[in-house]
Structure formats: C-alpha cells, structure tokens
C-alpha cells in the first residue's frame, strides 16, 4: 500500500505529518506523493479540497482520509491526537470505503473552446462589477431569467459550505443530487427567479447561459477562473465520485450538529 501525506503549512500540521511519516515508515509502508492508494490530508477541509484537486485525475483509485489540526471538519474526522489509532487503522486497512457525489462543470466559450472541471464543494458563476444576467435551463428547458450577483451549484457534501451561507439546505451526502442557490437575485417584471434553492435529480442537469460579457468569474471550490466570454456552463452529477477510507463511522447529522450548533454536550451535562 502506498500512502501520500498532504498537509498545510501550519506548525501543528507539519508536526503531525512528520510523526505520521515516521510511524508509517517504521511499519514498512511506502510513502509517496506519486500514484498513492491513500491520501492522508492534514489541516482542514480546505486542505482536503486542495488534495482533491491535486489528485483529481486519479479519483477512481485513491481513497482519502482527513485529519484536522483545527476544528472538526466535514471531510476531516480524525483529530491530531488520534495518531496511534490512525496508524493502527492504516496498517490493518482492508479497503473499507465510502463515496460521495461530485459536480461536473462543463464550460463552453464563444470562441468554440471549452473547459471541464470536477468540484467537490461547489462551482459558482458570478459577476462583480455589474449584475449578472443569464438564462437558467433545466434539462434544456428554460426555467428562469436570472439577474443578480450570481449562482452557486453545490454537491451534497458542499451543502455545508458556501451554499449554506447562501441559504441552501444541508443535504445528506448519501443523496445523489445537486443544489442550486442564488446569490442576491433581483426580482422584477423582467427578471423573475424562483428565489429559493432547488435540488435536482441525478439524471437532470442545469445550464446557465449568461449575457455576453467578459467579466464573469467562475469558481470551482477554492479556485477562481477569470474566464473569456462564456456561452454556457452545464452542471451535472459527475461520473466520478470521491472515495474516503472509512475505518469508523460518524453520523452526518452529528457532524452537522457539532459544527454548527454545538450545544449537545452542554445540554447532556445539564440534564
Ligand atoms: P477558506 O476561505 O479557507 O474556507 C472557508 C471555510 O469553509 C473554512 O472554514 C473551511 O473549513 C470551510 N469549508 C470548506 N469546505 C467545507 C464543507 N464542505 N463544509 C463546511 N465547511 C467547509 O477557503 P478554502 O479552505 O479554500 O475552502 C474553499 C471553500 O470555502 C469553497 O469551496 C466554499 O465552499 C467556501 N467558501 C465559503 C464562503 C461563504 O460561506 N461565504 C465564501 C467563499 C468560500 P476549514 O477551516 O476546515 O478549511
Ligand atoms: Mn481553509
């Protein structure tokens, strides 16, 4: 088994990475950043996002594990003080995994070119200087005319990130669905949007056709692409999925509670 350790630059993360490397080498596990079977990320959810994009071309053969050196994350469920348990789990690995849906982003330009991305959290199309005007199609049928700052399409695991700040619902990651949320839509006689988030089915796709302008920003997770004139962007559930090595299970709603509410422990103590 080959393992890659991918950490951010925080001292706590680097210390953990060094300790983990030593422990794994002592057990004759190969550490390599090329063609790993398992990628252990050390840092936060942002670190896992970076690692995901670093290995996006090998998603079918890689399993990820997230260790957090800050707060509990959505992709990072091991704590840095659990190093012995993690080493034990890795040495006894028998291929246990769980996988989640990803977002496929297909951008077409007026010049005939195209770009293709896969997102773990979300992709947004936005305009900063003026409002964005665009038509939104679902399965090639015109759905609405949008005017506002932009639109966000997120995966179920991305529903606790930017999408949530935009008023989106939190989706259980076992659902194979995508959610579209609006960023400050203007509603008047000319432009009318649904004004609430929508969740589409696995076989559906959303196409956004913005007005011909040059200053759109397309984001894919932590990446920002300042793109040339776009004719349309199509979003659908990707063929690929992200796999995590699952050595133990934490219920999704426990994680949501811990991240956003956090009152359960004190409540239990009181009663
Ligand atoms: P960042 O600015 O460092 O991350 C923003 C925050 O989002 C961090 O606290 C990060 O957690 C958290 N996060 C990332 N993925 C998450 C998820 N699936 N569920 C819950 N929280 C999550 O930038 P970054 O680390 O490169 O992450 C990029 C992501 O930030 C984008 O994909 C977008 O979802 C999010 N974002 C959110 C807003 C907003 O809510 N207004 C605005 C821009 C971007 P860690 O601290 O553990 O890294
Ligand atoms: Mn971050």
Automatic annotation (TrEMBL):
Choose any GO biological process term that the UniProt entry carries and state it: NADP+ biosynthetic process
Cofactor(s) it depends on: a divalent metal cation
Database matches in InterPro entries:
ATP-NAD_kinase_N (IPR017438), ATP-NAD_kinase_PpnK-typ_C (IPR017437), NAD/diacylglycerol_kinase_sf (IPR016064), NADK (IPR002504)
| Protein name, as recorded | NAD kinase
Per UniProt, which keywords does this protein have? ATP-binding, Cytoplasm, Kinase, NAD, NADP, Nucleotide-binding, Transferase
Please list the reactions this protein catalyses.
NAD(+) + ATP = ADP + NADP(+) + H(+)
EC annotation from Swiss-Prot or TrEMBL: 2.7.1.23
Functional description taken from the UniProt entry: Involved in the regulation of the intracellular balance of NAD and NADP, and is a key enzyme in the biosynthesis of NADP. Catalyzes specifically the phosphorylation on 2'-hydroxyl of the adenosine moiety of NAD to yield NADP.
Q: Record's family?
A: Belongs to the NAD kinase family.
Residues of the active site? 45 (proton acceptor)
Tell me, what is one Gene Ontology molecular-function annotation carried by this entry? ATP binding
Q: Which domain of life is it from?
A: Bacteria
| Cellular-component GO terms for this entry | cytoplasm
Q: Where in the cell is it found?
A: Cytoplasm
State where NAD(+) binds: 45-46, 121-122, 147, 149, 160-165, 184
